[in-house]
Write a structure and sequence with these properties.
Layout: E1 9-12, E2 20-24, E3 27-35, H1 40-46, H2 55-64, E4 68-75, E5 80-84, E6 93-97, E7 100-104, H3 107-113, H4 123-132, E8 146-147, E9 152-156, E10 162-166, H5 179-200, E11 205-209, H6 214-225, E12 231-237, H7 242-254, E13 257-262, H8 265-272, H9 275-284, H10 296-306, E14 311-314, H11 319-322, H12 337-345, H13 355-370, H14 383-397, H15 403-408, E15 412-414, H16 420-426, H17 431-434, H18 438-447, H19 465-479, H20 483-494, H21 509-513, H22 522-536
Parallel strand pairs: 1-7, 11-12, 11-14, 12-13, 14-15
Antiparallel strand pairs: 2-3, 3-4, 4-5, 5-9, 6-7, 6-8, 9-10
Helix pairs in contact: 4-22, 5-16, 6-7, 12-14, 19-20
Length: 539
């Protein structure tokens, strides 16, 4: 779509994944996602009016005021502006090809425009993805292709200048107050965010992927408290799994319709070998992280079951991070936050943790921190920096890509826990109330919204009796000899069969059983497969 002669740029957007295209006078707009406080035409009418000597600051202020999850590209005869939201929920990519700025929703479309000689892989990105599942900064696996980070926008004007600016950061502005104060504000903010969303979705069916955890349960019980009625819940996995049993019990108590999407190792294994899955992998590949595949079959089956255009998925992505539950405690540790960050997020494979690789990661993390914390010393990083790096890394590059399974199945979605108001609130909460999700978990059980927060709704035994007995025998047998051996053997033997959704079956059991590299979880194998596939394309 290049109908209007424009400043030196090319925009390549795949309209199949929820993107829309508008024109107004001499301006073009590509936009995806949702906005609470603006209509798409507001952007195409207002942003071009901001182009003057102070363009960058004016556009920064305008984008800072947008409320929702989105990505957009606006092009006029003299300017190009493109932006992602506060968590990069919808990715945008860019490259300079033959002195032409190319912007796209799909990095493979950019790759097709590049000369073969320019398609070199980025060694640092390969190392980062191998160790964590995602790349750091704006890098992708290809040197010539970049990806906007969460909270960024880019602008190019008629002078050929191109710059990337940050308009939002998940930084702390801690407020003073006691537990009761933050409890009150937490409840008020949560219900306000849910009320804004439900008002925006009047006439739609709110569909909640309901698990046994806090996040999806808070959405369901919070909407019940607000007397929202157009709710449908579904849970996927084995019939006797904790997720399914607790999910069913919560939905029944709240009076919501509940659907079980049965999944197993057998059905998932068959699915991972299908043409559908192969197409999904290729379509949602960001070149920046391994594809998020946890719920793609469940969403496919749900869509086939209902196929209702009024359904809107509302998931709990990602309340446990926002509330502080991922912040490690330094008690009893002889490590600082940086060491703990690498242990948590860059240890997919034990054999990749060495001084050379660790230094590569540390240097890249420092670059990322320096965007908002100039001159920061990584050795003295605090919990604010820890959460900042996870927000800008794992959350916005990998976890948020679960939304692609909805896009791929033509389902609308909302993410209330990545609302800017919600992020602002949690950025104001002192560390003592955030550690271990203390405020979050405690308030939910004290208030008992919807009556689903008592002990009877806690995790139920998911079975696996044979495995539990076998594990106990092995534990007792090895206890007197080698505790570390027991831990490794226990993981190699049972990790595969303890997955109640069958999501581990993209790779065969013997890979887990005989692994000697030290895998951490299923993403370890996903990252290894991803890198192997990309390297094979160069041969």
């Amino acid at each position: 779509m290049n109908s209007i002669p424009q400043v030196g740029s090319k925009v390549i957007i795949d309209l199949a994944l929820g993107w829309n295209y508008f024109t107004h006078n001499d301006s073009e707009l590509w936009i995806c996602g949702y906005l609470y406080n603006h209509k798409p035409l507001d952007l195409i009418e207002k942003i071009p009016l901001l182009f003057d000597a102070n363009t960058t600051n004016k556009i920064k202020d305008f984008i800072s005021g947008l409320d929702g999850c989105y990505a957009f590209v606006i092009r006029t005869r003299k300017h190009l502006v493109f932006s992602v939201d506060q968590v990069a929920s919808i990715p945008l990519f860019f490259s300079n090809i033959d002195k032409l700025l190319v912007v796209s929703s799909d990095p493979s479309m950019i790759l097709e425009k590049m000369k073969t000689a320019d398609r070199g892989l980025d060694d640092k990105s390969l190392t980062e993805i191998s160790m964590s599942g995602y790349a750091i900064n704006r890098k992708t696996i290809y040197k010539g292709i970049g990806k906007l980070q969460a909270g960024e926008f880019a602008i190019k004007d008629g002078t050929e200048d191109f710059s990337i600016q940050r308009y939002f950061s998940f930084k702390y502005l801690v407020s003073s107050g006691n537990y009761d104060y933050f409890k009150s504000v937490f409840l008020k903010t949560t219900l306000s965010v849910l009320r804004k969303m439900s008002n925006d979705l009047k006439g739609k069916n709110i569909v909640i992927p309901l698990s046994s955890g806090n996040d999806s349960r808070l959405i369901a019980s919070g909407l019940k408290h607000l007397k929202v009625e157009n709710i449908i819940c579904f849970t996927y996995g084995k019939e006797k799994s904790t997720e399914v049993r607790v999910g069913r019990k919560i939905a029944l108590k709240l009076g919501y319709k509940w659907i079980h999407i049965p999944l197993s190792l057998k059905t998932q294994k068959s699915f991972f070998g299908s043409d559908y899955f192969s197409k999904y992998e290729n379509t949602v590949d960001t070149f920046n992280a391994v594809q998020f595949i946890q719920d793609i079959l469940a969403i496919k089956l749900f869509k086939e079951l209902r196929n209702n255009p009024n359904d809107v998925i509302v998931n709990g992505n990602t309340g446990d991070f926002i509330c502080g539950a991922h912040i490690p405690t330094l008690n009893n540790h002889h490590k600082n936050y940086l060491d703990l960050f690498l242990d948590k997020h860059y240890s997919l494979w034990r054999d990749l943790r060495n001084s050379k690789n660790d230094n590569i990661i540390k240097n890249q993390l420092k670059k990322n921190l320096s965007f908002c914390y100039p001159g920061v010393n990584l050795d003295t990083m605090d919990y604010n920096h820890y959460e900042f790096l996870e927000w800008l890394g794992r959350q916005s590059n990998f976890i948020v890509q679960m939304q692609r399974s909805y896009d791929f199945n033509r389902l609308l979605w909302r993410m209330p826990f990545w609302d800017k108001d919600y992020m602002k609130f949690w950025g104001s909460v002192p560390l003592k109330f955030k550690l271990n999700g203390n405020l979050y978990s405690k308030v939910l059980r004290e208030e008992d919204l919807g009556g689903v927060w008592s002990k009877e709704f806690e995790d139920l035994d998911s079975g696996h009796i044979f495995i539990k007995v076998f594990r106990k025998i092995i534990y007792l047998s090895l206890l007197i000899f080698d505790k570390s051996l027991h831990k490794r053997l226990n993981k190699n033997l049972f990790y595969y069969y303890l997955d109640d959704s069958g999501g581990v079956s993209f790779t065969p059991y013997h890979k887990y059983l005989f692994d000697k590299r030290g895998f951490r979880n299923r993403v370890s194998f996903r990252s290894a497969m991803y890198i192997k596939k990309k390297l094979s394309l160069l041969k």
